[in-house]
Design a protein that fits this description.
single chain; alpha+beta; Alpha-Beta Plaits; four-stranded antiparallel beta sheet; 2 helices; 4 strands
Length: about 70
């Protein structure tokens, strides 16, 4: 398992946090995702054999946020 912290621009509220968390958690291999609009970050734990960091970044951008 690997845990990463991603900086995300555009999250403004709890709805934004939930949207990011739901999208990331839908990926096979992701075991946890805690997004914070206040900190503009998400802390994500995932199985590197099932999902790549690039896939996580892509899904966050697909739901309308910018990964830095």
């Amino acid at each position: 398992m690997k845990t990463i912290t991603i900086t995300i621009e555009g999250m403004m509220c709890q709805h934004c946090e939930t949207r990011v968390q739901n999208a990331v958690m839908a990926l096979d291999g992701v075991t946890s995702c805690e997004a914070s609009a206040k900190n503009n970050q998400a802390v994500i734990t995932f199985d590197e054999t099932k999902v790549k960091e690039e896939n996580i970044n892509e899904i966050i951008e697909e739901v309308g946020y910018e990964v830095k």
